[in-house]
Amino acid sequence: MIEARTNALLARLMLIALMAVTLLPFLSMFSAALAPSGTYPAGLQWPSDPQWGNFVRAFELANMTKLLWSSSLIVLGVVPVSVLIATMAGFGLSRIDKGRGKWLYLVFVLGLTLPFEAVITPLYYEVKALGILNTRMALILPLIGLFMPFSVYWMRAHFLNVPSELGEAAEVDGASEWKQFWLIQVPIARPAIMSLSILLFLWTWNQFLLPVVLVQDPEQRTMAGALGAFQGQWGTDVPLLCAGALLILTPTVLLFLIFQRQFVAALLQGSVKG
Amino acid sequence: MSDRPLDRDAPRRAENPPQQAAVKRRAPTDRDRRKLRVAIAFIAPALVFYAAFVLVPLGMSVYYSLQRWDGIGRLRFVGLKNYLIVLTDPDLLQIIGNAFNLILYFTLIPIALGLAVASVIRGHMSGTFGTVTRTVLFLPQVIPLVAAGIAWSWMFASTGLVNQLLTAVGLGSLARGWLGDFTFALPAVGMIGAWVLLGLCTMLLVTGIAKIDTSIYEAAELDGAGKWQELIYITIPALRQEIGVCVTVTVIAALASFDIVYIATAGGPGISTMVPGLEIYRLAFAHRQVGLASALAIVLMVLVLLCILPVQWFARPKR
C-alpha cells in the first residue's frame, strides 16, 4: 500500500519534471519576446516593461496573414487528394493481399523509411522541368507523392481489418466495386481517415526541406519554411525572432489544444504503424 | 471466411482432381483477373504520384550519383568515383559519423527516460492530470522542428536559460555559447532532438506498459525480484514492439536530421555539427556538385535501411 502510494507520488513528480523541461523553452521564448526589440535579454525573466508590440511587429514583418493563407492553400492542395487516393489504393491493395498483386504493396513499403533528402536534388530539377519551381504546386505535387508510402500503408492496414464478408455481401447485391467503396468501405474507414488527415496536415504545415529548396519566395511557402526565412532576416534580433517563432507555431498548437484527443491518438498510432 | 468458393469447387475437384488443380495453378479464373484489374484501377492514382515524385527522383539520384555534374553543363560519367569519395573523404566520413553520434541523444535519452517513467507509472494515466500530461508532452511533436530549433538556439545562447540555470546553481564556470563550441555543439544539437522526441517515446512506452498484466509483476515481487530485474526480465521484453517503434522513429530522425541543424548551427562551428541531410543540400545547391550530393543521398538512404531493418526484425510480433 505504502509502496504503491510512494510510487504514484514519484510518478507524478517525474511527469511534472518532464513537463517542466518541455515547457521551459516556450516560456523562455515568451519572456524574450517581451523584451525591447534589439536587446539581449536574460534567459527567463519577466521584463519590467513588457513589449507586447513585438508581436504586432513580427506579425507585420513576417506577413502572417499571407503566410496563413499560403500554408492553408498548400494543406488544402495536399491533404484531401492524398487521403482520397491513399484510401483507394489501400482498399485496392487489401483486396489483392493474397493474389499475384502482392508485390505492388512491397513497392509502396519501399518508400517508408526514405529520407526526403535522398530525392530532394532530383526533385528540384524535376519541378524545374515541369515549370512549377517557386510556386505552391512545387510543394503540393511532390508532397502528395512523398506521403504515399505511409498513407497507403496506413489505409491498407485498416482495410485488412475489415471483415471480408462485408464486401462479399455487397458483391452478391450486385453493387459495383466503386459503389461498394463509397457506400460501405469509406464510412467504416472514417476513424482511420481522420487520423491520417491530422498527420498529413501536421507534416505538410511543418514541412521545411521542400520549401527551402523548391520555393524562394517565403510567401509561397509553408509556415515552417517561412520561419526559416524569417530567422535568416531577423536572426540577430532575439526578441523579434522569438515573437515571430511563437506566432508561427500558434495555429497548430491551437488546433492541437482543441482536438487534443484526436491528435494524441493519431500521433501515437501513426508512429506505431509507421 | 472464404469457405464459400471452396465449397463450390469441391464437387468439380472430386470429379477430376489432378487436372483441375493444374489448370488452377496455370491460369487464374476470369473472376481473379477481373479482381486484379479492379484493384489496380483503385491503386493507379496513388501509384502515379508515388512513381512521379519518389520512384523517378530516386532513379535519377542513382543516375546522378554516377556522374560528375555542376547542375547546368554536360553530365560526365565517372562510375563509382563519387561513392569512393563519400566513403573515404575524412570530412564526409566525419559528417556521417556526426549523424550516428546524434543517435546517442535522439534515441537513448528519450527511451531511457521514457522507460523510467513508464515503469514507475505502470498503468493508465487517467483524469485531468493525465490529459494535461499528454497534451504538454506532445507539444514538441506538433510544432515545426524549425521552431524547436529557434527556441533552443535561444536556450543555449550565452545569455540563455541554460547558462542562467548553471550560474544559479553555482556552475557558472561551465557557462558558454553552447552551439558555437567545437566540443559541445553536437551534444547540444542532440539535446534538442532528445527534447523533441522525449514526449512521444514516453507516451508510447506508458501506453505499452499499461497493457502488461500486473499479476506478472506481483508474481515476480513474491519471488523476490528487484526493480532492476523486473525491468530487464519483464518490462523490456514485453515492450519489445513499443521500444522497436521508438528506436525506428528516433534513429530515422537522427540520421536524416535537417531542420534542427539548419536552424541551430547550420553545421558549424567548422563541420562539427554538419549532418548528411544538410551536406546534401549544401553540395547540390551551394557547391554545384550534384553527383557527389546524390551519392551521399543514396548512401544515407542505405544507412537508414541498414539501421532500421534489424530493429524491425527484433521487434516483430511473436507468433
Automatic annotation (TrEMBL), chain A:
<protein>
    <submittedName>
        <fullName>Raffinose/stachyose/melibiose transport system permease protein</fullName>
    </submittedName>
</protein>
<dbReference type="Pfam" id="PF00528">
    <property type="entry name" value="BPD_transp_1"/>
</dbReference>
<feature type="transmembrane region" description="Helical">
    <location>
        <begin position="137"/>
        <end position="155"/>
    </location>
</feature>
<feature type="transmembrane region" description="Helical">
    <location>
        <begin position="103"/>
        <end position="125"/>
    </location>
</feature>
<dbReference type="GO" id="GO:0055085">
    <property type="term" value="P:transmembrane transport"/>
</dbReference>
<feature type="domain" description="ABC transmembrane type-1">
    <location>
        <begin position="68"/>
        <end position="259"/>
    </location>
</feature>
<feature type="transmembrane region" description="Helical">
    <location>
        <begin position="238"/>
        <end position="259"/>
    </location>
</feature>
<feature type="transmembrane region" description="Helical">
    <location>
        <begin position="67"/>
        <end position="91"/>
    </location>
</feature>
<keyword id="KW-1003">Cell membrane</keyword>
<feature type="transmembrane region" description="Helical">
    <location>
        <begin position="12"/>
        <end position="35"/>
    </location>
</feature>
<keyword id="KW-1133">Transmembrane helix</keyword>
<dbReference type="InterPro" id="IPR035906">
    <property type="entry name" value="MetI-like_sf"/>
</dbReference>
<feature type="transmembrane region" description="Helical">
    <location>
        <begin position="188"/>
        <end position="205"/>
    </location>
</feature>
<comment type="similarity">
    <text>Belongs to the binding-protein-dependent transport system permease family.</text>
</comment>
<keyword id="KW-0813">Transport</keyword>
<keyword id="KW-0812">Transmembrane</keyword>
<dbReference type="InterPro" id="IPR000515">
    <property type="entry name" value="MetI-like"/>
</dbReference>
<dbReference type="GO" id="GO:0005886">
    <property type="term" value="C:plasma membrane"/>
</dbReference>
<keyword id="KW-0472">Membrane</keyword>
From TrEMBL, chain B:
<dbReference type="InterPro" id="IPR035906">
    <property type="entry name" value="MetI-like_sf"/>
</dbReference>
<feature type="transmembrane region" description="Helical">
    <location>
        <begin position="102"/>
        <end position="121"/>
    </location>
</feature>
<feature type="domain" description="ABC transmembrane type-1">
    <location>
        <begin position="96"/>
        <end position="311"/>
    </location>
</feature>
<dbReference type="GO" id="GO:0005886">
    <property type="term" value="C:plasma membrane"/>
</dbReference>
<feature type="region of interest" description="Disordered">
    <location>
        <begin position="1"/>
        <end position="30"/>
    </location>
</feature>
<feature type="transmembrane region" description="Helical">
    <location>
        <begin position="292"/>
        <end position="315"/>
    </location>
</feature>
<keyword id="KW-0813">Transport</keyword>
<feature type="transmembrane region" description="Helical">
    <location>
        <begin position="38"/>
        <end position="66"/>
    </location>
</feature>
<feature type="transmembrane region" description="Helical">
    <location>
        <begin position="243"/>
        <end position="264"/>
    </location>
</feature>
<feature type="transmembrane region" description="Helical">
    <location>
        <begin position="182"/>
        <end position="206"/>
    </location>
</feature>
<dbReference type="InterPro" id="IPR051393">
    <property type="entry name" value="ABC_transporter_permease"/>
</dbReference>
<feature type="transmembrane region" description="Helical">
    <location>
        <begin position="142"/>
        <end position="162"/>
    </location>
</feature>
<keyword id="KW-0812">Transmembrane</keyword>
<keyword id="KW-1133">Transmembrane helix</keyword>
<dbReference type="InterPro" id="IPR000515">
    <property type="entry name" value="MetI-like"/>
</dbReference>
<keyword id="KW-0472">Membrane</keyword>
<comment type="similarity">
    <text>Belongs to the binding-protein-dependent transport system permease family.</text>
</comment>
<dbReference type="Pfam" id="PF00528">
    <property type="entry name" value="BPD_transp_1"/>
</dbReference>
<dbReference type="GO" id="GO:0055085">
    <property type="term" value="P:transmembrane transport"/>
</dbReference>
<protein>
    <submittedName>
        <fullName>Raffinose/stachyose/melibiose transport system permease protein</fullName>
    </submittedName>
</protein>
<feature type="compositionally biased region" description="Basic and acidic residues">
    <location>
        <begin position="1"/>
        <end position="15"/>
    </location>
</feature>
<keyword id="KW-1003">Cell membrane</keyword>
